[in-house]
Specification:
643 residues; alpha+beta; Heat Shock Protein 90; Ribosomal Protein S5, domain 2; Rossmann fold
Length: 643
């Protein structure tokens, strides 16, 4: 007998979302997320439209302003959006662009040969997700204006509001994100805008972009970007804190079937590659066919040169892609009239024909460079050969560290105390500073789901070491074995044994140093773990507040002051500064830092790989001066510090 009560599924259950309703209903489908990253994506959509004018040869200057009310203004001196009536919608072209999805000048017809905004949803999506948006268009000696409110609804039709100089052209868009959509934050970060706008100007030599932050009238920030050297200057900036092994930045460019490729590269004395690719100014985080073609050619050309010039003997193993990319800084920029991306967020280029074009352009240029610069060629090949020898040594070390079973892990060096649960989605591992804190953590943990790995001292700084040397470090070998993923060529994220990797160190200088060393290790050798969101930092409290029978732990001075202000007037309380992790007993460590119901964890993310790469190199690399300057610029001097 079927006792299930069925709800009727009828025609009325089928909803049709009109206009921009779909965007507001499912914003993640259009901008990826409504977090801070999605908020800034709104700016990129509008800026991309202005940059497309520059790509078409009609725009020289773009200005981006964070206004006092945290709204955004984007101005350009392009041709100005068309202001007539659109034949298909019957609306003005401006209203069509800002209210109709997939309406734009980038689907053919000759408006744009190359464009970053290809889906025709950019302007309309920004409008849909804004509290209000205004657009001003300058041409024909007139200023055209239209305002939209509450998710893209036009206040009134497009109208002329003023005269302007006869030869003035351009578009200005102003918008304020809707706080009901972006519930996490509506505050724009100057640093995020700075990095992306600087990047755009590197990729478009001769384009000027001015960024202004007008939120604080007493301290207005302003930066101007203009790079006539293009991606050559980009590589120079990325290598600023590194030591190049050959003097010149190598540059190639070429085109075929309206597809153009630019490559700039220079080797340095580090051990990690920094390769970034773009298509129509869009950063292709996951690479794609343009990056594949260049990498394939790089490996082939260096191997051919090494064999022809007897660096490699006939029976020697060829250099691998990993070998020839060690210490390489490279920018690859592709301009394509019809690029095929994976989704609106454009993370990977898929056009098959680009692979061969990129290979051809790079091959011809790099072969010529090696032949014409034998001294530099020798330096580059010898670095690749050294990397190959280190790779072989690393492979042997990996085999030693390779995990053979759970029992081996539990007994590995007598360090790891594993959890009983084998499901990685509910298992977590604490990397704990010192044996004393490790002992308390072992006693205070939930043995079913929490594993403890005490670390003795500071691990090797892998920013200054190749993989083979890192694998000779006992602490690092233990971490690799405990994680179960392998490392280097053997890395497999699916084998990760814990989906929460929690760094638990003291809130002092030594604890911070250990945390940075671990993050450097993860970023260089376990980056997919960080990108997948598996790495966290424990947040031990700084103060304990007692009043009556209540005990309250707070993370910092601000939380302390906020909590004290919430107490009734006249309440008697005691405040004590918390001890280090090693001085806490098991119960206290569990209650403050480990219990999933009361603890605070800080998730470690890589918002921008390029910025992260530069930060790790600056703080942990060989060059002392950039680190010294960073400390001097960011040091906070405090007198009469109560410790």
């Amino acid at each position: 007998m079927n006792n299930k009560v069925e709800k009727e599924y009828s025609d009325s259950d089928i909803q049709v979302l009109e206009g921009l309703e779909a965007v507001r209903k499912r914003p993640g489908m259009y901008i990826g997320t409504t977090s801070e990253r999605g908020l800034h994506h709104l700016v990129w959509e509008i800026v991309d439209n202005s940059v497309d004018e520059a790509l078409a040869g009609y725009c020289d200057d773009i200005e981006v302003i964070i206004e006092k009310d945290n709204s955004i203004t984007v101005k350009d001196d392009g041709r100005g959006m068309p202001t007539g009536t659109n034949a298909k919608t019957g609306l003005s072209t401006i209203e069509t662009i800002f209210t109709v999805l997939h309406a734009g000048g980038k689907f053919g017809g000759g408006g744009y040969k190359v464009s970053g905004g290809l889906h025709g949803v950019g302007a309309s999506v920004v409008n849909a997700l804004s509290d209000w948006l205004e657009v001003y268009v300058y041409h024909n000696g007139k200023v055209y204006f239209q305002r939209f409110e509450h998710g893209g609804h036009p206040v009134e039709p497009l109208k002329i509001i003023d005269d302007c100089e006869e030869n003035r052209t351009g578009t200005t868009v102003k918008f304020k994100p809707d706080a009901s959509i972006f519930t996490e934050t509506t505050e724009f970060k100057y640093e995020i805008l700075y990095e992306r706008l600087q990047e755009i100007t590197f990729l478009n030599k001769g384009l000027r972009i001015i960024l202004t932050d007008a939120r604080d009238a007493s301290n207005i920030k302003k930066d101007e970007f203009l790079y006539n050297g293009g991606i050559i200057e980009f590589v120079r900036l990325l290598n600023a804190n590194k030591t190049p092994i050959h003097p010149d930045i190598v540059y190639f460019e070429g085109a075929e079937d309206d597809i153009s490729i630019e490559i700039a590269m220079q080797y340095n004395n580090t051990y990690s590659p920094s390769i970034y690719s773009y298509t129509n100014n869009i950063k292709t985080y996951e690479g794609g066919t343009h990056e594949d073609g260049v990498k394939r050619a790089l490996t082939r050309i260096i191997n051919n040169y090494a064999k022809a010039n007897k660096f490699l003997k006939d029976n020697d193993d060829p250099l691998s892609g990993e070998d020839v990319r060690e210490g390489l800084t490279m920018i690859i920029s592709c301009k394509h009239p019809d690029p095929q991306f994976e989704g609106q967020t454009k993370t990977k280029l898929g056009n098959a024909e680009v692979r061969k074009i990129a290979d051809d352009v790079f091959s011809k240029g790099f072969e010529r460079y090696l032949l014409e610069n034998p001294t530099d060629a020798k330096i580059i090949v010898e670095k690749c050969l050294t990397a190959a020898r280190a790779r072989v040594a690393a492979k042997k070390a990996r085999e030693i560290a390779h995990r053979k079973g759970d029992l081996d892990v539990i007994n590995f060096g007598g360090k790891l105390v594993d959890c009983k649960e084998k499901d990685p989605t509910v298992s977590e591992i604490f990397l704990v500073e010192g044996d004393s804190a490790g002992g308390s953590a072992i006693k205070g943990r939930n043995s079913m789901t929490q594993a403890i790995l005490p670390l003795r001292g500071k691990i090797l700084n892998v920013e200054k070491a190749r993989l083979d040397r890192a694998l000779s470090n006992e602490e690092i070998k233990t971490i690799i074995t405990a994680f179960g993923t392998g490392i280097g060529d053997d890395f497999n994220l699916d084998k990760l044994r814990y989906h929460k990797i929690i760094i638990m160190t003291d809130a002092d200088v030594d604890g911070s140093h250990i945390r940075v060393l671990l993050l450097t290790l993860f970023y260089r050798f376990f980056r997919p773990i960080v990108e997948a969101g598996h790495v966290y930092a424990a947040q031990p409290p700084l103060f304990c507040i007692k009043h009556g029978k209540t005990i309250k732990y707070v993370l910092n001075e601000d939380e302390r002051d906020e909590y004290l202000a919430s107490l009734k007037e006249g309440t008697k309380y005691e405040i004590s500064r918390m001890k280090g992790l090693g001085e806490m007993d098991a119960e206290e460590l569990n209650a403050t830092t480990m219990d999933i119901n009361t603890r605070v964890l800080r998730k470690i993310t890589v918002g921008d790989l390029m910025a992260a790469d530069a930060a790790f190199n600056k703080l942990m690399g060989e060059e002392v001066e950039p680190r010294r300057k960073f400390i001097e610029d960011n040091a906070v001097y405090v007198q009469n510090l109560d410790i």
